[in-house]
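If you are new to this repository, start here. Below is one unmodified record pulled from the training split, so you can see the exact layout before writing a loader.
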Amino acid sequence: MSNAGLAKRLTAAVGLLLTLLINHHSFLTNFNLVPGDRGDSRLVIFTLEHWYRVFQGQEAFFHLNMFYPGKLALGYADGLFLFSLPYACFRAIGLDYFSSYQVLFAVMTVLGYATCLLLLRKALQLNWYFSVLGSVLLTSLNSMQFQADIGKLTAYYFCPTLIYWLHAYSSMKDKGSLRGWLCLLAFSAGVGLLFFTSYYPAWFFLFTLLLVGLVALVTSAATGSPRAVARSASGFVRANWLQVAAALLVFGAALAPFLVTYAPLVLANSNRSLGLVLEFAPTWRSIVNVSPGNYVWSPVLNWLRFGYGNREVQMGSPIIVLMLFGGFYLFKVLRGFRNAEAGGDSRDRFIFVLSTTAFVIFALTIKIHGVSAWYIVYRLIPGASALRALGRYLMVIDMIVIVTVIYCLQEWYQSSKSRCDGRWRYLIGGGIALLSCALVVEQV
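And here is the target side for that same chain:
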């Protein structure tokens, strides 16, 4: 093995170890300490155990025996279906249900890290170091650590795989190939099953894709001909109508268990009231609300007498990565978008669209004097009225912030290195290393 290959593997291994620190409560106690409180964690484990018994033919599909004699109790919480497959494997090899849940948590973290690494390498074409750094940050979010007791939110770790399949399909020249079909249908099935696993990550994922598409459409129309954009979209549908129809059918089939489980509750008018949703909506302060549990920034916020509010809005971004995001957006992302429109790197255009989407999400969710633009989404978008903890959308903003910062950091590093030589390159590399450490540490 070459020195370069060994260095890559060592870097990836160090990144994985850093990522797994989120599960330290299990490792240090020999898997005797389950993350979370006595409510959510018990319900998650009981639901997973339900699926294990369903697979064995010992329980009915919809019946959670804990809520006997209720026949549709599964619809009162997340289905956790995709989690149940590895969980059942751990139970089958002899692990008890508490240990199986903790190992599942660790496996999901490894999955998130590995798929983020793959996605950053393939989609954004980042080098190995920045891909590892981005993967560590994306799977060790301050907000994810704060919400470790809500294990169902680790379903976010399925999203990089879905994005990779979508990117692989969209970047193919021959979309009608077998690989194109597999990527598109896997994406469609994955999104449908994600709803039956954890509703918040699934709904936020699909709605964010919609917003990204709308932002891309608006920017394209603003810099070119709206008719040309419409013709391009309609041309894609006409050229690939069979695949589009098949994808919709597969998505519908994968979504069917979710609909059958939750439709009775929807018909019983069990949607959240807008007042309840806005009670957990973020305010302008929430973007830096890293919770009182953050070791780096909570002492500063405490000194400033920061009011943290309810725990559902304590999912903001740490200060350093947020400042870098703001600076890069003003001085690099906007300029990169103009260059992309002039025939430059298409990745710059994508980063502009993605980072602008973060501003759109925050503008939609923020609550000012009890008023929020989320009212429009709540009324018009299917499924929005089922959300309660709107502040959890801050996790998506945090992910977009990290992707933007990592991409811009690599671009700045490569540009600076090309203009310098000798010791200046070493100084720049050392500065990047120190900044990387700061970005990781402030997540804790």
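Two things worth knowing about this chain: The mean pLDDT is 86. DSSP finds 19 helices and two strands in the chain.
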